[in-house]
Amino acid sequence: MLKLLYIENIAVIEKTSIDFEDGLNVLTGETGAGKSIIIDAINAIMGQRTSKDIIRTGETSAFVSAQFEDVNASVENKLTELGYTLDDGVLLLQRTLSASGKGSCKINGRPATLSMLRTLSPYLINIHGQHESYELFSVDSHLGYIDSFGGLQALKAQYADKYHAYKILQKKLNEANSDESERLREIDLLQFQAAELFDADVQPGEEEQLEEERGALLNFEKIFSLLHKAKQMLEGEDADGGAEAVDIAATALQNAAAYNQSYVDLSSRLTDIYYNLRDCAEEINDAIDNLESDPQRLEEIEERLDLLGRLTRKYNCAADELPALAEQMQTRLETLLNYDKNRDALETACAQAKEEALALATELRQQRRAAAADFAAKVKKEMQFLNMPNVELVPQFEETALGAEGIDKAELLISANPGETPRPVAKIASGGELSRMMLAIKTVLAATDDVGTLIFDEVDTGISGSAAEKVGLKLREVSRDSQVLCVTHQAQIAALADHHYLIEKRVEQGRTFTVVNPLDRDARVHELARIIGGVNITEAALSHARDMLDNA
Fold it and tell me: Residue 485 and residue 493: Cα distance in Å, rounded?
């Protein structure tokens, strides 16, 4: 569950820290106080794209962090896949927003990406706002509800793999069935290019080796002169070379050691240096003996490097990549030359893959239709509780061609009044009916969804009175299995909360500040009375508020 939310420099919030608890957490406040900013901050920490305009005026950056505790196994498994672990059972997400556009993210103190936060999001928090109700207008979402209720995710994933494999084979088959003249043209080109590269027989590291050899041949005279100078310095003439001078020094120190043993070590080190210098002198002599000028070899190297240069420019790759390119061309050439044989094999494989995908799609359809009836019945029951006593909910299926979702198109048809034929949601549902239908769906799915935190942003839109109270009762029921956060304007809902937070906007020294504070019982009574009675809070409103809390 979401235990701690910290917000800094988001819109009118300078700094605030909110400790959430188990059960039903309700946030209330006057219009414009900043309730939506809390949701914006949670969306930001969940990895959603956020405009830099959300940063508080005059600040260069903003910061949001969310601490989760008692996370479920799904979250832990997803963290492991991403390369992270829990820290003593705690998950800490952090995000910095920058006015320059360069933000940063962290998971348990380690750098992360927005994509990683988005990957974790569905396993941590499910946000239902006013616009989410309009998901019901999208028929595609209806199938998702049924699949989620029926626990068909594993079967869907299995089908998705088979369907993906089928589409790949289908694409290859379509390519194999391309225009014959195009195939022949490609064969002709590949035969020439592959032959050219195989004839060149480029070896790994060859270009670098040739460049080095060419450098040595081009600078023969300079190298000879420098080697000769080195030889002269080491060997000299008439025993005056560097090596002989070191030998003389070593002998002198050896003789001095007869009078003072402290010179023995120094004499030995000079002796070692002398033998090393003699070895170097001999190697230099060998190098001079092996040094030769070869104009013909230089010409061969220039021609070879010119060929490598032309091939790398022609095929737009490094010289070392040419052999692999030749193999790729040869493989493609063999595929084209064995066109009929490959096409027959592809047709067989494609047909088999389609058959396997179709078998899973058929199984999906059967399980979906079995789950849909139970799902619709449960959602209908919840909607009836939410003051829609005459509602009818009918799942309608239409078989489609094999696609990403299988062979089904599903739509939940609704009738809100007696005698009306069930029709698409978009054609008859009002805003209040949409909110209650979505809450009913969320309630039914909560039993199969292991998300730790559910957020309802103004789910009371378009309802009032007893309907609002029943929405509150339903939210409290859902909160027994999952932590629930609810932004509301309804006193009936706020009175049923386990924990109540007030969002207030203040103006200090010409700047606007929003703060979020938990309310004790007396403060809750006052806030409920404000919601009931408006600006002028009467004793009657306060008495009503106390009764609401007592009855809750």
Answer: 12
| Whole-angstrom distance, CA of residue 53 vs CA of residue 230 | 70
d(CA 214, CA 240): 36
Strand-pair category, 24-28 with 483-487: parallel
Looking at the DSSP bridge assignments, the partners of residue 19 are 4
For the chain, helix (H) and strand (E) counts, in that order, are 20, 15
* CA-atom Rg of the chain in angstroms: 40
User: For residue 159, which of 423, 358, 422, 429 has the smallest C-alpha distance?
Assistant: 358
**How far is Cα 545 from Cα 538, in angstroms, rounded to an integer?**
11
Secondary structure class of 424 (helix, strand, coil): strand
CB of 431 within 8 A of CB of 466?
no
pTM: 0.62
Q: Please name which of 117, 21, 26 lies closest in space to residue 75, comparing C-alpha atoms.
A: 117
Query: What strands, in cross-sheet order, belong to the sheet with 499-508?
Result: 125-128, 453-457, 483-487, 24-28, 499-508, 511-518
Nearest to 106, CA basis, from 125, 122, 87: 87
Higher pLDDT pick, 314 / 177 = 314
Neighbours of 523 (CB within 10 A): 13
Q: Is 391 within 8 Å of 430 (Cβ atoms)?
A: no
Summarised one tens digit per residue, pLDDT across range 424-455 is 887 766 667 787 888 888 888 876 777 889 88
Q: Domain locations in the chain?
A: 1-129+458-519
Strand partners, 69: 90
* Per CATH, domain 1-129+458-519 is 3.40.50.720: no
